[in-house]
Automatic annotation (TrEMBL):
GO BP: chemotaxis; signal transduction
Classification via Pfam families: MCPsignal
Name the UniProt record assigns to this protein: Chemotaxis protein
Taxonomic lineage of the native organism: Bacteria, Pseudomonadati, Pseudomonadota, Alphaproteobacteria, Rhodospirillales
Keyword ATP-binding: no
Keyword terms, alphabetized: Transducer
Molecular function per GO: transmembrane signaling receptor activity
Origin: domain of life: Bacteria
InterPro entries according to UniProt: Chemotax_Me-accpt_rcpt, MCPsignal_dom
Domain named Methyl-accepting transducer: residues: 1-98
Protein family membership: Belongs to the methyl-accepting chemotaxis (MCP) protein family.
Presence of keyword Transferase: no
GO cellular component: membrane
Amino acid sequence: MNPNKGAIEQSIDKIFDEIAQLSIEIENVGQVAQQIDAIARQTNLLALNATIEAARAGDAGKGFAVVAGEVKQLAGQTSQATTEIGGIVQSLSSHVEQLKTISTKARDGLPSNEISSDMGMGA
């Protein structure tokens, strides 16, 4: 029996704990990105309403129409950025799942060369 087996098992258990925490944090980032996207959509609607009100105000509302247009553009950029964040979150989640698989194989005692080949697949 390998005298380091207990230490290795403890290390792998710690890896699982860290992976679980990482999964939670990734999910939190995704939720925040969804909230930001919802705010961006609401801001876009407010900018549209402001543009309509500016048009109804005639010449006096021209400056406000420019500001409303800029706000609408910023809302669009924010929405695009949150879409990109969503893609990153999905990628991170995929990598975490790979880590779980590799860690499970390590814990179950697969030869280290098989674990190493799995690690190279996701790179």
